[in-house]
Design goal:
α1 packs antiparallel against α2. An 8-stranded antiparallel β-barrel has the order 1-2-3-4-8-7-6-5. The protein has helices at 8-23, 28-54, 113-155, 162-183, 244-280, and strands spanning 63-70, 74-80, 85-93, 100-110, 192-200, 204-210, 215-223, 230-240. Helix content is 51%, strand content 25%. The chain has 3 domains: 4-54; 60-120 and 189-269, no CATH class; 134-186.
Amino acid sequence: MRRIETSNKLLKALNQYLPPLLSRCPSPEQQRLIYEKYYPLILQHVRKLYSQSLNPFYLCPESILVWLIIPPHNAIGISLLGLRKIAIYWRQQIEPNETIFLLFKIIDLHVPFPVMLFIMFASIGLIITDGANRLVKAAQMQSEEILGDIKETLNKLSDVTEDFQQSIETLKTLKNTQRARQLLDPFNITPRMSVFFPIYDNHTTLGILLIDFRHLEVTLKQSLEPNETIVGLIRSVDIYSPFPLPIMVMLLSMGLFLVSKIQELNQATREEVLSDVKRSIP
């Protein structure tokens, strides 16, 4: 009994399971037999409790959410919850500063494993393509600003030729055309990816939203009811990081997500096999 008294969780388990058994067995010998029979089971129960608390896989992302933007204030989210489980969300912006959002779960789906992988890697491809496109656009805007500065300088000179003025007007027309193209740019609807790490029983999670190759947003997701059908999303911090950091966060998060889900599948398969073996033993 001294060994049993060393653990509060073990005492809790003893108080829960043993008193009903001991009340039926007033004899000390019968009580000793009960302790010998149930003591290993209680230790196994406590070991599971501690292993759940100290399991490093609980630090892995619990979900990856891919957002398909619907301008101006809505989005459809595909949440990857496991190797064969996804959920569809509708996101609604609550206020104009894009700080508070409300998420509504539409449906839970159990899909084949290849479908989940296709959604994940297709989203990665579109996100990386969009990031590269943004880098090219930033370089073009920088060159246009340089041309604009040159234009202002040349306008101040009195000996500017008509041919050069005509070339400047051509650049203006080209710039207006590029603005019109931006309105119809398909990259405006490319997905964004959020990675959520559990904080408290998966009802409160800390998320990292990848905007592009430099822009990250830290968000807090809170379930507003027990079934997690309605979820609140609060954006707390904007981070403009060095170029490699968002790519590192994206790839590392996806790797940890896959590792944790494979570990869960392995654990469930092992427990199923053990239960089948126990049932087969007479």
